[in-house]
Amino acid sequence: MSQLHQLCRTLVVQHQQCLKPTDVRDVDFALLPAVLTQFFTFCTLAKAPPSTSVWFSLDLLDSTTALLPRDSPFALALLPHVVWYLQRIPAAPRDFQFSRQTFGRWTGVVSWAVAQAATSRNLPLQLALPDAVHALTQAVRGFHVDVV
After folding, report:
1. What is the pLDDT of residues 59-83, one digit of tens each?
2. Does residue 148 lie in a domain region?
């Protein structure tokens, strides 16, 4: 799992480095959302405890949600995995899961999920968001995302 994670991380870093204003190579990374979505499929189906796969790949989840437009087919494919992550937040051990280091990443992921919830009729997402936001607000002082 760590090698797969490292591969995905390297792809994301390479993609970010190629997004300079003078370099139009985004077509080279057209399949990156598909690769990352498959990585999260692997994470949610893995036999490892959720705490291992969820927190281990939070950086990639944040990068993936930042990469995907709201109406992308990959966004729809990623949505069940984001819901899976959000459902685990309320029961997660606070000292390990939520710190200043992960604060920005959770803000990005939850903001993306809120935007998805506004346009989709995904009941599991709509049910998971309030509990996840409440748990994050309790765990990290200053965490705030509006849930409509």
Report:
1. 888 888 888 877 888 888 889 888 9
2. no
Distance, in Å, from the CA atom of 7 to the CA atom of 113, rounded to the nearest integer, reads 25
- Residue 115 backbone phi and psi in degrees, to 5: -60, -40
**Residue 132 pLDDT > 60:** yes
Cα separation of 106 and 111, whole Å? 8
Q: Which residues constitute the domain of residue 85?
A: 2-139
Q: How many domains does the chain have?
A: 1
pLDDT tens-digit readout, 32-48: 888 888 888 877 776 66
